[in-house]
Design goal:
This protein is an alpha/beta fold and 322 residues long. It has a single domain (6-309), classed as TIM Barrel (Alpha-Beta Barrel), CATH 3.20.20.220. It has helices at 6-13, 32-46, 80-87, 106-115, 138-146, 160-166, 169-178, 192-205, 226-234, 241-248, 253-274, 290-309, and strands at residues 18-23, 53-56, 95-100, 121-125, 153-158, 183-188, 215-220, 279-284. The longest helix has 22 residues, at 253-274. The N and C termini lie close together (11 Å). The mean pLDDT is 92.
Amino acid sequence: MYLAWMFTSKIAKRESGIILYGITPPKANNTPEKIEEITKRTIARLQNLDIDGLVIYDLQDEATRNPEDRPFPFFQTIDAFTYATEWFRDLSLSKIVYCSVGKLTEEELAAQIEKSSGNNASVFVGAPSKDHHVQLSLDKAYKIWNAIPARPLLGAVAIPERHSVKRNEHLRIANKMKSGCSFFITQCVYNIEYVKNLVADLYFSNEGNAENIPTLIFTLTPCGSVKTLKFLDWLGINVPEWLDKELTNSEDILARSVDLCIKIAEEIIDFCQQKNIPFGLNIESVSIRKEEIEASAVLLNSVVKILNEKGIRAKTEKKLLA
């Protein structure tokens, strides 16, 4: 039987080969009937995936971070915590729930932490920019989390692109570990050099002692159109020039992006294994297009196959519904 705490157990044991599946909640203006339909389809899809946890993103309007026109309009979605606890309450699978702490008061965050299951995990996210109004800072959110005895596992976001500019993401990770974070999930990865630079700086700043390095989970996302490619750029995700041209000029951009993501996954796996750093991969499925949803499953299954062939991961029988 699949254990609901597989993800949290693997983090505690510093096991590599963690596989997560990332989704966004439905739009807030959907009817309850529509939300239930979307949720049932999602659960049916999860039945066929060998995963350790479900990532549920808490979307923010990032207009204050990037003044350029957003390629896709922003739509308010259901709060991630509400979606996880109410609509996925019977899902016997660890939920890794993002929380945009700036929208909450101290009392609201404390209540949310206390209601969280110990088999799940939280990823606190700060404001997208200094100009974004917040009620609660990330530092204060960490203090609130630490003050609550029965709290879920805590994670944070790591951004290789930020490291390429400021060269201090490994120091940010170290500071967030002191605040209680035990795993880090990157934003979508398309530049493998940025990833290697961050991992190398983490490794060598710890004098080659991987025991002091947290579990790093790298996000991969299929790209289904040139418009999506532009959206990745708007989000601050670096796509190397050669790769951008590969995708833009491809007859099947979605299939080509899956192939490229598989190669990126292979490099990440090998690089982390060489340094004995605990790692995982998070495959996003954030599109409503059937083709892109299916492509995310193809990518996930391909990555799992690589991990199996390398002896890093063994398939586990699972029962998703309690």
